[in-house]
Amino acid sequence: xxxxxxxxxxxxxxxxxxxxxxxxxxxxxxxxxxxxxxxxxxxxxxxxxxxxxxxxxxxxxxxxxxxxxxxxxxxxxxxxxxxxxxxxxxxxxxxxxxxxxxxxxxxxxxxxxxxxxxxxxxxxxxxxxxxxxxxxxxxxxxxxxxxxxxxxxxxxxxxxxxxxxxxxxxxxxxxxxxxxxxxxxxxxxxxxx
Length: 193
Known about the structure:
alpha+beta; 2 domains
């Protein structure tokens, strides 16, 4: 094994080990922030196991710039791969808040906020309506919880109803009770804090 790591291909092996351990580290942090302690601990075990081997080999070959570049490049690539994995493997929910001016509809159509709420509900989204007061007038606020991959489509629907709508998007770190639309259907979401 030492002969393999001492050869120039050893730098590639160190690179691969770093990609694996840093990817696991990024993935573990995202999972931990979302409250999945057990999974974070399991990932952390394998992350450190791979890291120890990578560091030991890098330290053993400090006189080789190729090995050092492999170590550093593996760290950089591991960050990229880890974020990509987290985006594709860890489902995220986002909260969209759309603030409409409370103006009457035109040509017998409902107000823009009402039309947007009806369109979203027809598409299967749970929409909460809140009346508020803005700087100059009353406003209607629509709150929609969506999977992150559907955020752009929901924003497009909101802007079709009113191009002047104010929209903010936040990641939902915890959800308790209520109804959301995971997997394209309405169902109670399990409480998680």
